[in-house]
Amino acid sequence: MLLELKEVQKHYKDFSLNCSIQVKEGYVTGLIGANGAGKSTTFKAILGLIQIEGGTIERFGKSQNDFTVQEKTKIGTVLSEHTFSSMMTIKDVIAVMEAMYQKFNKKQFLKKCEVYHLPLDKKIKDFSTGMKAKFKLLIAMSYEAKLLILDEPTVGLDSVTRNELLDEIREYMCQEGRAILISSHISSDLEGLCDDLYFMQEGKILFYEETDRILSNYAILKVSEEQYQKIDKTYLWYQKKTTYGYELLTKERQYYQENYPNITIEKGNIDDIVSFIRKGETI
Amino acid sequence: MNLIISNSSMEPIYEQIIRQIKSMIIDGKLKEGTVLPSVRILSKDLKISALTVKKAYDCLEQDGFIITVHGKGSFVAQNNKNLLQEEQKRKVESMLELAIQAGRHCGMKEKEIRELFELILEE
Q1: Distance from CA of B119 to the nearest CA of A (A)
Q2: DSSP 8-class letter at A67
Q3: Pairwise CB contact (< 8 Å): B41 & A174
Q4: A252 to chain B, minimum CA–CA distance in Å?
Q5: B41 contact partners, CB below 8 Å, separation of at least 6
Q6: DSSP A81
Q7: For A193, which residue in chain B has the nearest alpha carbon?
Q8: Which residues of B fall within a CB distance of 8 Å from A220?
Q9: Minimum Cα–Cα distance from B39: chain A residue
Q10: How far apart are the first and last CA of chain A?
């Protein structure tokens, strides 16, 4: 286990965080939730940027009190705010990184800057959105960190740039002993990248599942009123009333496929499930 | 190794991987001892979760098609003729089952189905 949060609590005036999350070695774990659900607060707590009021956070099996500077260099981060002054150039940043991180791989980093056409002498404040996002991710991945904490690394990017960054992240995971915790609003990003997912709402974890199970076992059934009355509801989870009948969410796609060949069944995806959990009613 | 994954298919992704690797082994396109790509590499190339790939590899190992050596990777297992034949037989069996089901569905009697089968066999 590279990261474990146990009932971590933090209270603000009109928001309370209370969540447990595990990130295992070799896993890319996704954190999804609406704006204001508590994802960024969770990330800040993990990084020790805010004081938690209850629960424990273990990184690399060590509690927050035993956490040394040495261990902090094993974590790479992308946060929404900039880590470096926007008046700096990449050249300035490299000097800082060399002084701070023993494992900073300058050669590799420069190579990546070249691949993505990042100018070394330009001030970061003059970078485009895409350039800033690439720069932030490349820096986080430049010193062989074992754990990456990525808070919406692809926000505001076009699909080509987004896919480039996702490929970089996948590439990073090819080396053993690493893990990533990532948040995003774009479910297709998460479907193709994450091994498991936590869904957060109002500071709490509502739902956890392996991505593979969502894609292969979850499904949406679309039934008429009449079909709804007859269908076996044992394996149904959420329902939504529509104009012409019901939409039903199940975790046992195969059961309904085999026993109800006439019902319209669609593959579930993360967006559907999120929408069911937020707007549907449990059965 | 050339795998084609459809994200929109109703067939679970790990089953698509299993089916394609199995048929490559049965057809002899993947020879005994061939090293398969690591779980992470394949997950990167196919843009799917590593757990999905791992599940597919685990199933293939259970069925005796591949062997995974810790720290070394996964290999195509020693060709087991019986296993391959068994697998192909199962395929034929399920296709025959489908045909019989279709026959019964439209009200054909057992005798009629049998006669039809004999007829096609003779052709």
Answers
A1: 32
A2: -
A3: yes
A4: 12
A5: A174
A6: S
A7: B49
A8: none
A9: A174
A10: 35
Specify which residues A224 forms β-bridges with: A245
Are B61 and B75 spatial neighbours (Cβ–Cβ below 8 Å)? no
Q: How many Å apart are CA B106 and CA B18, to the nearest integer?
A: 34
Gap from A214 CA to chain B (nearest CA, Å):
10
Distance from CA of A207 to the nearest CA of B (A): 19
Which residue from B44, B50, B55 is facing A26, i.e. has the nearest CB? Answer: B50
Quote the tokens at residue B17: 């991987």
Instruction: Please report, as a single letter, which amino acid is at residue A237.
Output: W
Mean pLDDT of B64-69: 91
Q: The pTM is what?
A: 0.85
For residues B43 and A34, give the distance between their C-alpha atoms in angstroms, rounded to a whole number: 28
Interface of B with A in 44-63 (CB under 8 A): 44, 47-52, 55
Q: What is the pLDDT of chain A when averaged over all its residues?
A: 91
B102 in A contact zone (CB under 8 Å): no
The dihedral region occupied by A200, where left means phi > 0, alpha psi between -120 and 50, and beta the remainder, is beta
Q: Is A167–B38 a contact, with Cβ atoms under 8 angstroms apart?
A: no
Compare CB distances from B44 to A171, A194, A265 and report the shortest one's residue. A171
Q: Model confidence over A16-41: pLDDT tens digits?
A: 999 999 999 999 999 998 888 999 99
Chain B residues close to A167, C-beta within 8 Å: 44
Contact A248, A220 (CB under 8 A): yes
The SS3 of residue B93 is helix
Q: How far apart are CA A248 and CA A237, in angstroms?
A: 7
On whether ipTM exceeds 0.85, the answer is: no
Q: How far is B111 from chain A (nearest CA, A)?
A: 28
Q: Rounded to whole angstroms, how far apart are CA atoms B77 and B35?
A: 10
Provide the CA B13 distance to its chain's centre, in angstroms. 13
Contact A137, A109 (CB under 8 A): no
A148: tokens are 């990456």
Give which of B81, B103, B100, B102 is closest to B92, Cα–Cα. Answer: B100
Q: B21 near B31, Cβ under 8 Å?
A: no
Contact B13 A194 (CB under 8 A): no
Provide the terminal-to-terminal Cα distance of chain B, rounded to the nearest Å: 37
In chain B, how many H helices and how many E strands?
5, 2
Sort strands B66-69 and A179-183 into parallel, antiparallel or unpaired.
unpaired
Number of alpha carbons in the 13 Å side-chain half-sphere of residue A5: 25
